[in-house]
Amino acid sequence: ISYITSRIAVMSFPAEGVESAIKNNIEDVRLFLDSKHPGRYAVYNLSPRSYRSSRFHNRVSECGWPARRTPNLQNLYSICKNMHSWLKQDPKNVCIVHCLDGRAASAVVVCSFLCFCRLFTTAEAAVYMF
């Protein structure tokens, strides 16, 4: 898990079974998030794969699109609005964003969100932060 800001983090897909030997183990991720942000995190799954949202206390938003494709602007705007709403609810709330590799789709969403919140005025500046 890499924190982009104190309230936005990215990671690769949380895996189970054999796959967890080379990726983030979903149970380890849950234990970490429950200890560091108890009851204060929402997970945004940008990958085309899914898992039981109960693993993260039913606070998972399935926002995925096909790998190596771009989201449509309506979907991207909806994700940004949802993240903004979650963070606005409580200053301790955090957003955990993941795609398959923790880079491609996660970068698109996080950089879009940073511009959506007007933390940056250009995409280049947001990408540099990422």
TrEMBL record:
InterPro entries: Dual-spec_lipid-protein_phosph, Prot-tyrosine_phosphatase-like, Tensin_phosphatase
Ranges in a coiled coil: none
GO CC, any one term: cytosol
GO terms for MF: phosphatidylinositol-3,4,5-trisphosphate 3-phosphatase activity
Keyword Secreted appears in the UniProt entry: no
Domain Phosphatase tensin-type: from-to ranges: 1-130
Gene3D superfamilies: Protein tyrosine phosphatase superfamily (3.90.190.10)
Signal peptide: none
Keyword annotations from UniProtKB, A to Z: Hydrolase
Protein name: Phosphatase tensin-type domain-containing protein
Natural source organism: Micrurus lemniscatus lemniscatus
